[in-house]
Design brief:
There is one protein chain. Helix 6 links the parallel strand 6 and strand 7. The longest helix has 11 residues. The protein has seven helices and eleven strands. A seven-stranded mixed sheet has the order 5-4-3-6-7-11-10, with helices on both faces. The chain has a four-stranded antiparallel sheet with strand order 2-1-8-9. By secondary structure, it is α/β, with parallel strands linked by helices. The chain is about 25% helix and about 25% strand. Helix 1 runs parallel beside helix 5. Bound molecules: S-adenosylmethionine. The site of S-adenosylmethionine (SAM) has 24 residues, from helix 4 and strand 4. One of its GO terms (molecular function) is methyltransferase activity.
Length: about 260
């Protein structure tokens, strides 16, 4: 599997600045000028009732992919679940750790602890768009989950299936932002189409607070996995890093606190 160049969020100063203040405005801006508002205030707040209802559905150990500032990781940790957040943004990982969560500064497409053993993978707040290639992301998540494991994804509230090049910007003007990176927006019907073709089983879809979600179960049988003699099991010991892994092949937390 090729690794999408999806780490541009990591160098997006407007994103890091917004996470520091807990405030927007912040947008994903397409080259044609179209703006997708990013809900930084909600992400930096505590998990709300809609989030908590999603977390009630989690099974086993939880990997929050693109955890952002970590409200979900923190809430799951308080509940006593083994949970790890991963994010390419150092500012996001630092925020998550400050909230008391465990987080690793790593792309979902890089080697991760516990590959093939996570009980639940979360792709919240539109994170099904990570990498701009839903098929590749679903395939990657299938390799992260245990056989029959659960994926909970938040989809776009409209029926859309879109891939574009975007950048993170702080204002509505053309001004500068972070680097350009591929992103996807998927409504539930599109997600279910991709997932169905890849052998996933839809086990739920719901709307709450104007947000839409789908729950999918991976294949029950074991799948061929990429050999990784360094894969670590999901566990509750320190996996915290506030520093990006310098080498994608390094599968260890690079700085523990
Ligand atoms: C739409 S925001 C979601 C915010 C987040 N779910 C929260 O609770 O605040 C997307 C997040 O995914 C992260 N991200 C982007 N590409 C990633 C990748 N390849 N691997 C892991 N995280 C990624 C970004 O840094 C950003 O924090």
């Amino acid at each position: 599997m090729s690794t999408p160049p999806a780490v541009a969020w990591a160098g997006a100063d407007p994103y890091a600045a917004a996470l520091r203040t807990g405030r927007g405005p912040l947008f994903l801006r397409r080259s044609d000028g179209w703006l997708l508002p990013l809900e930084v205030e909600r992400w930096c707040a505590r998990a709300d009732p809609v989030d908590r209802a999603v977390l009630d559905r989690c099974e086993g150990t939880v990997l929050d992919v693109g955890c952002g500032p970590g409200r979900l990781v923190a809430e799951l940790a308080v509940r006593g679940r083994t949970v790890l957040g991963i994010d390419v943004s150092e500012a996001a990982v630092e925020h998550t750790v400050r909230l008391g969560g465990q987080a690793l500064c790593r792309s979902v497409f890089e080697p991760l602890p516990g590959e093939g053993r996570w009980g639940t993978v979360l792709l919240m707040d539109g994170n099904i768009g990570i990498g701009g290639d839903p098929r590749a992301l679903l395939d990657r998540v299938a390799h992260l989950l245990c056989p029959g494991g659960l994926l909970i994804a938040e989809t776009a509230p409209v029926d859309v299936d879109e891939r574009s090049e975007v950048r993170v910007v702080a204002g509505t003007g053309a001004g500068t932002g972070g680097g350009v990176f591929p992103w996807a927006r998927l409504g539930t019907p599109a997600l279910l189409r991709y997932a169905g073709r890849a052998g996933w089983r839809a086990v739920g879809q719901w709307t709450a607070g104007g947000r839409r979600f789908a729950a999918l179960r991976g294949l029950p049988r074991s799948r061929p996995r990429r050999a990784s003699s360094r894969a670590e099991p999901p566990n509750s010991t320190a996996l915290i890093s506030s520093q990006r892994a310098r080498k994608p092949s390094g599968d260890r937390p690079v700085a523990e606190r």
